[in-house]
Amino acid sequence: MKKMLFTAIALVAFAGTSIVNAKEDLIRTKPCMQVYMETYDECADLGMDAADCTSEANAAYGECLSGN
To answer: Where would one find the signal peptide in this protein (predicted)?
Structure first.
């Protein structure tokens, strides 16, 4: 019984930590999603096709996440 209780407590603690980490990741990446969207829109305004715009936007998103 003690083993099952300890396992349940550990599971709840781990799940709570995972939720906090996911929320921090979302907060950190939200501005980068804006960079992605703006890059894509600018690319489309220049008349580039969707594949090229996606590639450019992905590159800008990656640079934003890495802090460059």
So the answer is: 1-22
